[in-house]
Amino acid sequence: MNYGYARCSTDETRQDIHRQERDLRGLGAEKIFCEYESGTKRNRAQLNLLLSVAEKGDVIIATELSRITRSTKDLIEIIDIAKEKHLKLILGTFEVDCTGDTLDPMVEGMVKMMGVFAELERNMISERVTSGMRNAAAKGKVIGRPHTTVADIPQRFMKSYPLYEKHKINQSELARITGLNRGTVRKYIKMLEEIKTKYWEIRIFRKSIFMLLKKIRK
Q1: Which terminus has fewer CB within 10 Å in the chain: N or C?
Q2: 207 phi and psi angles, rounded to 5 deg
Q3: Average pLDDT over residues 133-158
Q4: Closest Cα to residue 50, out of 67, 38, 72?
Q5: What kind and span of H or E run contains 105?
Q6: How far apart are CA 51 and CA 46, in angstroms?
Q7: How far apart are CA 107 and CA 16, in angstroms?
């Protein structure tokens, strides 16, 4: 059986998932599992159901790798399930055939390399969390207290922040325009800058994996 998996984030439209369904049928999918969930979330009802019903020799197809997962660690777990159940994964241009008794040596090497990157990713996150807890403890903060998130930043700040980002105003002017004290403004700026840094780190990380995959396939 050829199964298709279509996923859209909650901020995408139904047209996006319909387009995926159409493309999946064109790729040979006979039954399609659809859901609206974030690609960073591993515990997804329809994906879990698909992985549980798929049997030896079945094929799981997605239009892009990111539709199945955006996490290297989760991808490794899904490949392990495919190896255990002897499934074939066709995720955009990424293909892993686990239907035989052994994996192709190049694919096996690629999977091991991805495992190294997944471990690196976990270590980076763990180090950040540990460092953050140390800093909080050093400042006498109570660990476990609810943290301010981007969703808590007021709209008036988000509207004026681009002016600061383009160096058209300084922090004091941003505080005056938004009616916030300078300490709060500094905190919000730090939050947004950390998010931008993390975004670029993830992009660089994914680009590194992509380049390695290209080299392996040559």
Answers
A1: C
A2: -65, -40
A3: 64
A4: 67
A5: helix 105-138
A6: 9
A7: 31
Average pLDDT of the segment spanning 42-54: 91
* C-alpha torsion 48→52→58→63, nearest 10: 0
C-alpha Rg value of the chain to the nearest Å: 22
Work out the angle at residue 73's Cα, subtended by the Cα atoms of residues 121 and 127, and round it to the nearest 5 degrees. 25
CA atoms of 38 and 48, how far apart (whole Å): 14
CB 142 within 8 A of CB 159: no
Token pair 């994964």: residue: 89
**Would you state the torsion angle of the CA atoms of residues 46, 149, 140, 128, taken in this order, to the nearest 10 degrees?**
60
Angle between helices 182-217 and 155-165 (to 10 degrees): 70
State residue 33's pLDDT score: 96
**SS3 annotation, 14-39:** HHHHHHHHHHHHHCCCCEEEEEECCC
38 in catalytic set = no
Q: Do the Cβ atoms of 191 and 153 come closer than 8 Å?
A: yes
Q: What pLDDT sits at residue 89?
A: 92
Task: Report the half-sphere exposure of 133 (CA within 13 A, side-chain side).
Answer: 8
For residue 126, give both structure tokens. Answer: 């763990």
